[in-house]
UniProtKB/TrEMBL annotation:
GO terms for cellular component: cytosol. GO terms for molecular function: deaminase activity. Belongs to the RutC family. This is Enamine deaminase RidA, house cleaning of reactive enamine intermediates, YjgF/YER057c/UK114 family. Gene3D superfamilies: RutC-like. Pfam families: Ribonuc_L-PSP. InterPro entries: RutC-like_sf, YjgF/YER057c/UK114.
Amino acid sequence: MKSLAPASIRPPFARYSHGVEVPIGHRLVFCSGQLGVAADGTIPESAGAQADLCFANIAAILAESGMGLADIVRVNAYVTDRAHMRAYMDSRDAHVGTPPPASTLMIVSGFTLPEFKVEIEVVAAAPEKRKAPRA
């Protein structure tokens, strides 16, 4: 992947890329927004723990396609309060690869349950799987 950072515009405010170029021959996976809820239905209290759980859920989804968190090229994230921005960004920075993906963070009024503080959706890209040659 190629990070796009034109010198003619202000550098990113945090650890993200203004754009990411995906080369020809890559396949894409689009993940629906993931909330910070565990498989057993528990919801952590803190925004950081919810964000970590969102990324764990995303990792499981990407693994179904033979990808990982380092393959993320775009993140859209939503938090319910400015107070949750730093915890989310720390989690994002700990989970995404280098170069960092393109990223947008929005503050929203809420989700389906009031306990939810963070939702994260991603796009990932990885080289096409090569078929083994026939013998």
